[in-house]
Amino acid sequence: MERNVSSPFNVTSLPTQLPLNTTGDINATVKPFSVFDGCDHQVEGILFDLILQCVNVLVGIPANVLVITVLIYNRKDPSTSDIFLGCLAFTDAYFSAMPPISFLNLYHWHSKEVWSALKFSYGVKDTSGPLFLSCICLDRFLAVLFPILFGQLKHIKYRLSLSVMVLCLTFAYSGAKSVGGLPNFEKVFTGEILATFAWMMVCNMSILWALKRSRGAGKDEMHPMKKKAFKMVLSILCIIVFNYLPPVALFPFEDYYSSDLFRCYVQPVGFAFLNISSTIQPLVYLSRLEKMPFLPDTWEERSVKKCCSCVSAENTKTPRAQ
Prior knowledge:
This protein is mainly alpha-helical. It contains eleven helices and no strands. It has one domain (about 10-315): Rhodopsin 7-helix transmembrane proteins (Rhopdopsin 7-helix transmembrane proteins, Up-down Bundle), CATH 1.20.1070.10.
């Protein structure tokens, strides 16, 4: 079953009228177009998905744009994973911009070409997120567990080549999804999400275990750089579990659900957790930053001084009141 077929954001075809000279049963009626596509009385899962997609529009777009801005300002001193983070932020911003177009096409345009374009955007989200996160995990995995090999592969050309390959796979998958009609095409996403989830879990658990052991005997504190890497990997692991575990746990058991239950509840809810990653991923990245590189230091110092003066004033008033 294709992604979000029950959601109004992923309807792939509109009801067609029978020809005037049809020879079919004259009592046959054309099913009217429904926003919920057969789930009119089971809308809870679809509404849950729609609410999270609206969050992507309001929060995800500015957050991803801010991530791209930070990466551009840090281009003189980049991290090895910045190219993967930039591609991920760009595809997430593109996907987050689609819901308003979906609403317009649902209630105004009714264009089949626009539906194909929307299916393409869902294909981009299905593929780019798991693959670019897998690339980030691979980069951190080599840096922590195989530092010598990581040093030999530190040149940007390797990451640029890997990013181009991921984008080619993403566009190929999205193009096939927008065309539709391919037999068992939905199994491709199920296999992809299972494989990438397993890979990311193995990488991150191995990294966390290695960083924990690296403190050495008698040392309670971790090295600052390793501590920073530990927090980064731990945040990625939380994203993986929260956003990718629901579809991984639900979708392989499609045959055990009734068609209505899977289409109206299981599939929209599972993809809702995947969709909201377009907001969670940039927010987690921004929360790890010590400062915004494009903000002047004087502005931050004034903010800190103002905050400190407010705290001092409160502390002064408290003893007087007592």
